[in-house]
Amino acid sequence: MKTSTFLVIGGAGYIGSHLVKALIEQEHRVLVVDNLSAGKASAVLGGELLVHDFDDRAFLDSLFKTHQFDGVFHFASQIVVSESVKDPGKYYRANTAATLTLLEAMRDHDVGPLVFSSTAAVYGEPQYTPIDENHPTNAVNPYGRSKLMVEQMLQDFANAYQQQYVALRYFNAAGADPQARIGEQHNPETHLIPLALQAITGKCPPLQLFGQDYDTPDGTCIRDYIHVDDLASAHILAMNYLINGGDSGVFNIGNGQGYSVNEVIQTASKVAEKQVPVTYAPRRAGDPARLVADANRAKQVLGWQPKYADLTLIIQHAWAWEKSRH
Ligand code: UDP
Questions:
Q1: Which of 18, 81, 149, 251 could form a disulfide with 298 if both were Cys (CB 3.0 to 4.6 A apart)?
Q2: Ligand 1 pocket test: which of 14, 172, 186, 191 has the largest number of ligand atoms within 8 Å of its C-beta?
Q3: pTM for this model (two decimals)
Q4: Cα–Cα distance between 163 and 95 in angstroms, integer?
Q5: Which residue, among 72, 84, 160, has the nearest Cα to 121 in the 3D structure?
């Protein structure tokens, strides 16, 4: 890709900051818009950071009048499934309605293309695995539905206004910058790998293992953990593909390899050379037994190849990041 100028909304967050790092490494110009409600200014390793809500039409109008972007990446969203069940309004406002404001502003200022952060949660309870993009979308919680509605808007906007987009359906984002400069730091943290590692360091109580009675070989849930730098590279390839005239659409991003919660705990214990303290808890509501991606479309169409597919490597990077924060 030639040197380009990109807008990264939510670029101070976990996945967005890894994309910003990759864009900077490729010498692109980057403007990050992030209200720092979840992101950290220190996670933005380059480019310019504008601390502002993106859900503000007057702000977007002035941004698009004063800057010429070659494309937009949109990461900013609320991501806690259990919270989305208790407070769906927050999710439809922040994830769905806010994105509509962005799409209209992009349409009116003729800005594009857009790469959007979607989620495997759009599929709901899997009818088969690995899950390909033709799997029915039956999101089972407001979080998943808030993202699915955006995908539907994106398709309608592409049809009506020729606004090009790719929606990337992430499986379980994990790991950290291999140099441990940036990594996962959600508050509250709800994800398995950081919670397991923080149970070791003592930053968190013992890990609650949610459910040992699933229909899987060891009874614990199986997930497809994908390195955050591999997610970042998928975004750049998706943008490149759109800039070169590729058709709008959705792509799964995962390794195609599932690991059980027990396997993650064992690997984390090996990497940290200390046993993850575990307590046993009932199933967490809404957790499907098995979520594994078929990401062949991204491989074939975008030319994407994960670099860090190995779970041990993913956890090694996450562990180096955890240790760097103490
Ligand atoms: N999990 C767990 N204890 C935790 C957090 C997660 O047992 O404290 C399990 C969870 O039930 C799921 C898997 O780990 O089976 C991955 O959960 P995570 O929240 O990391 O990602 P999700 O798959 O929900 O997006």
A1: 251
A2: 191
A3: 0.97
A4: 19
A5: 84
Q: Which residues are catalytic?
A: 143
Report the nearest atom of ligand 1 relative to the CA of 172.
Answer: 25
Taking the C-alpha atoms of residue 156 and residue 198, their distance in angstroms, rounded to an integer, is 43
DSSP bridge partners of 311: none
- Cα 195 to averaged position of ligand 1 atoms, centre (Å): 9
User: Per-domain residue ranges for the chain?
Assistant: 5-173+227-253
Give the residue whose CA is nearest to atom 24 of ligand 1.
287
**Percentage of the chain lying above the pLDDT 70 cut:** 99
Short-list 253, 262, 269, CA closest to 316? 269
How many C-beta atoms lie closer than 10 Å to residue 202's C-beta? 9
Could you tell which of 80, 85, 184, 287 is best to mutate to test the pocket of ligand 1, judged by most ligand atoms within 8 Å of the CB? Answer: 287
Q: What pLDDT digit, counting tens, does each position of 265-309 carry?
A: 999 999 999 999 999 999 998 889 999 999 999 999 999 999 999
Q: Name the residue at shortest CA distance from atom 18 of ligand 1.
A: 191
1 C-alpha to ligand 1 centroid (Å)? 37
Task: Name every protein residue with a CB atom under 6 angstroms from any ligand 1 atom.
Answer: 172, 190-192, 195, 207-210, 221, 223, 261, 284, 287
Q: Looking at domain 5-173+227-253, which of 3.40.50.720, 3.40.50.300, 3.40.50.1820, 2.40.160.10 is its CATH number?
A: 3.40.50.720
